[in-house]
Specification:
Elements lengths: L33 H7 L1 H14 L5 H12 L5 E10 L14 E9 L2 E8 L1
Antiparallel strand pairs: 1-2, 2-3
Helix pairs in contact: 2-3
């Protein structure tokens, strides 16, 4: 969008900063109780499970999304808002996996706290 609209802005891509347990650093984390935080770490673990499936040769994105959603639904405090596969540069939805160019993005409610996370696969 920045390039499409010719905004005089430079976008710098940096890795996500994570806590020791894998939870992405976010101001919203301060609103999590100890029990909620314990469940919230399942977000990154679920994304990593998706990466493992891709590494094992399963590249069907519908199956991948279903598996990630399944893993996210195990902790009782988590409610999936979305899990999407998009192009890592344009953020346009993709139907085909392209190694290093596909980003898996998710948003999840942890009780009343909304958390987002993503990985490039």
């Amino acid at each position: 969008m920045v390039s499409d609209l010719h905004f005089p802005v430079e976008i710098r891509i940096a890795p996500i900063v994570r806590e020791e347990d894998g939870l992405a650093v976010s101001a919203a984390n301060a609103f999590l109780s100890d029990f909620q935080r314990k469940d919230a770490v399942a977000i990154y673990r679920s994304l990593c499970k998706g990466r493992e499936l891709l590494d094992s040769g399963i590249t069907n994105l519908d199956r991948l999304m279903a598996e990630i959603i399944h893993h996210l639904s195990i902790p009782r405090r988590l409610r999936v808002i979305y899990v999407n596969a998009v192009d890592a540069e344009s953020f346009e939805p993709v139907r085909e996996y392209i190694k290093g160019r596909t980003l898996i993005a998710t948003a999840v409610w942890v009780d009343q706290v909304r958390l987002v996370d993503n990985i490039i696969v």
